[in-house]
Amino acid sequence: MFINESEILQPQDWSFPIPIMYGPGRIVEITDLCLQHGIRKPLIVTDKGSEKLPFSIKLQELLNNGKITFDVFADISPNPLDTDIAKGKKKFLDGAFDAVIAIGGGSAMDGGKAICLVANNAYDLWDFEYERKDTPQINANNQFPKLITIPTTAGTGAETESTAMITDTKKGMKFCVWHHSFKPNITILDPELTLTLPRNLTAWTGFDALTHAIEAFLVPSFNPLCDAMALEALKLVSKFLPVVYDEPNNISARAGMLVGSCLAGVSFLKGLGLVHSISHMIGAEYNTHHGLTNAIVLPVVLRFNLEGMDSQTATIAQNMHLEELSAAKLISEIEKLMGRTDIPDNLGEIGVPLDCAHRIAKKAMVDSATSTNPKKVSLMRMEDLVKTSIIGKRTT
Ligand SMILES: [Fe+2]
To answer: Which end of the chain, N or C, is more open, meaning fewer C-beta atoms within 10 Å of its C-beta?
Structure first.
């Protein structure tokens, strides 16, 4: 892909993998979009603390101006809980809403999707767990509400696909929920909405996107569509993440990150790897930020995964614009970028204790991302990876 910075801000409508309205300022089309989709009374779903942020206010003003009745559910936790989803379902049904508009970061996307999964049927949320074989039967009487996604961080990439990571509060573990016939109806990628994202969240969510692209590309299955998306995402994210960290108001860099994050999100339909397996379980127990946790675990897992994967490593390095294509150089560049964006050395620095390593490793072994990791891992090795992530020091 040739990245032309004067063209990157031109509005575009893409139709794959779902309809995508891309371009600065496109949030203003929300009312027309609701009317086109027959949406009369949407419930806005967002994460705790986002209800009063400029993007939420803007969305509410636009809906008010368009005379569209709505309400806001802003009780989604940073790591969404099954109890949040139950509350959201109740609000959706009590208010007789006909659609969800999910706006915010990954937790808002996942919260909105999970509420849609259960809103119109009597199934339990965990009936939609990814590994279950007996998929819930959804027919014309209980079909999913319409869903519009509006990401305001460039990282999660959760806006175009159907899966959501939710914490099971009884088990203290995160699980993936989804349904094969459910997808967001449309997404608005408006980079202006990401301009106010604080620097730390810009870096952390950016590292989530980088991790998605790398882990998806390394999944050992034949899927050229997802691989192409992963590599295009790597080009964009590695080019623009340092820029957007230094120049938060650079709209071209914000645009590049938002598209890169979206592409990386599509690429992980192929699967993910051990960075996510570990990060999911750390997040479920210690409520750490998902992107930050991934960033810290990424070099540790790459040291394990990349051994003997010279060709894949070279392809990743090439697409990250590196001249030297070795695993050592790739990992050291990632660690340099972590240092440059003020990401801590290890999970201990963000409050994860060493004595959780065995328990976290056991939980991570059954995470769905473990099965798509390029290398099989023993419990002992998994525990080593967790320990190194908790106490490790960067080598660069
Ligand atoms: Fe992620």
So the answer is: N
Residues 233, 252 share a domain: yes
**Do residues 245 and 177 both lie within one domain?**
no
* Distance in Å, CA 215 to ligand 1 centroid: 10
Find all residues with CB under 8 Å of 16, minimum gap 6, and list them: none
pLDDT at 49: 82
Phi-psi domain of 373 (left: phi exceeds 0; alpha: psi -120 through 50; beta: other): beta
Q: Are both 306 and 204 inside the same structural domain?
A: yes
Instruction: Tell whether 17 and 78 lie within a shared domain.
Output: yes
- Quick check: 241 and 251 in contact, CB under 8 A? no
* Model pTM score: 0.93
Query: What is the distance in A from the centroid of ligand 1 to the CA of 140?
Result: 33
The total number of structural domains that make up the chain = 2
Residue 265 CA, ligand 1 centroid: distance in Å: 8
* Ligand 1 center from residue 287 Cα (angstroms): 14
Amino acid at 71: D
Distance 68 CA to ligand 1 centre (A): 33
Confidence of residue 134 (pLDDT cuts 50, 70, 90): confident
CA–centroid distance, residue 291 to ligand 1 (Å): 6
Residue corresponding to tokens 């952390």: 204
Average pLDDT for residues 390-396, to the nearest whole number? 75
Strand 42-47: give its sheet, edge to edge.
Answer: 12-14, 20-22, 186-189, 146-151, 99-104, 42-47, 71-76
Residues 223 and 372 placed together within one structural domain of the fold: yes
- For residue 64, the CA-to-ligand 1 centroid distance in Å is 34
Question: Are residues 355 and 217 part of one domain?
Answer: yes
Residues 76 and 163 in one domain: yes
**Alpha carbon of 393 to ligand 1 centroid (Å):** 23
pLDDT given at position 105? 92
In which domain, by residue range, is 151 found? 12-193
- Name the domain boundary from 172, 193, 214: 193
Q: Does residue 131 surpass a pLDDT of 90? A: no
Q: Per-residue pLDDT for 139 more than 90?
A: no
Residue 205 has a pLDDT of: 96
Phi, psi at residue 125, to the nearest 5°?
A: -55, -40
Ligand 1 centroid to Cα of residue 276, in Å, is 6
Among residues 210, 221, 189, 214, which one has the least CA distance to residue 303?
214
**Residue located via tokens 């936790």:** 77
